[in-house]
Design a protein that fits this description.
Helix content: 10-25%
Pfam families: CLN5
Distance between the termini: 34 Å
Order of helices and strands: EEEHEEHEHEHEEHEEHHHEE
Number of strands: 13
Number of helices: 8
Largest sheet: 6 strands, mixed
Organism: Pyxicephalus adspersus
Oligomer: single chain
Strand content: 25-35%
InterPro entries: CLN5 (IPR026138)
Radius of gyration: 21 Å
Keywords: Glycoprotein, Signal
Family: Belongs to the CLN5 family.
Amino acid sequence: MTRAVLTLVLIGVSVCIVAGSQVWPVPYRRFDHRPKPDPYCQAQFTFCPTGYVNGSIPLMKDEDIIEVFRLQAPVWEFKYGDLLGHFKIMHDAIGFKSSLTGKNYTAEWYELFQLGNCTFPHLRLDVEEPFWCNQGAACFFEGIDDEHWRSFGTLVPVATISGSMFNQLAKWIKEDNNTGIYYETWTVKESMAPNSTLWFDSYDCSKFVLRTYQKLSELGATFKKRVQTNYTRLFLYSGEPVYLGNASSIFGQHGNKSLATEIHKFYFPYRPHQSFKELILSIMDIYGKSVLLKTFYLFYNFEYWYLPLKPPYITITYEEIPLPSR
């Protein structure tokens, strides 16, 4: 990628940026291994409490016939019932059923430390750099909670595969999980127009399901054509993003002090555990930065980008993405 260095004055901050043959959307960065989470990151709800040790997935006999299920339910259905379902904020997963053993299994990919921690950082008094608890990972466990998925969501068969295909898929899931380590909430586009430029793509539960369906198709699975499959997406709308740098170039002794201060100010209203008065002031601050100043700082691939926001600024969609065809 060829980049030329430019200087941009951004909201009163002098920023050194790069420009040139930028690829859009920015490719999601993969890693050669999954690091251990920092002890500072604590989950309100335990990640994958009934999953197999070390993310292992049981092998099936090659001759087994495995039914594949589409699973979808409102986010936090266990706590709020169908509330978020009315806004089409849905969580996606995949179910499997062995014909030889009769056992059911669930595979899903979600945040290790809940959605808020993946979307916004912690600002610690003793650390200048914003601190992110944004790992996401696959969870594979025995059983399908029929009531959870059927009450307000979806539990429907979408394909049938062999045990041999399942074992190949299991190997791929572990590789995918160990190289794709962080959750990304936002999808960033130029506008709501169907063919507008996609700047950044999300990396969340629905994208895991879509990747898994695609892998099954590559392995030879045939999907049921009449099943409609919709997915929740959270969009930001922006003009062409501006690359700002990584943590070491922005924060610390040799960083850009003015830009570091602006990023801190931007994330401050999103801090957790606010009083009612603080929350009202934060909402006003968020509105001022996002709508009036049209400013958003995105953390992607462990780098920071400036987004010059455009109307309608943010939307939640429930888009149909068809099952793979061969």
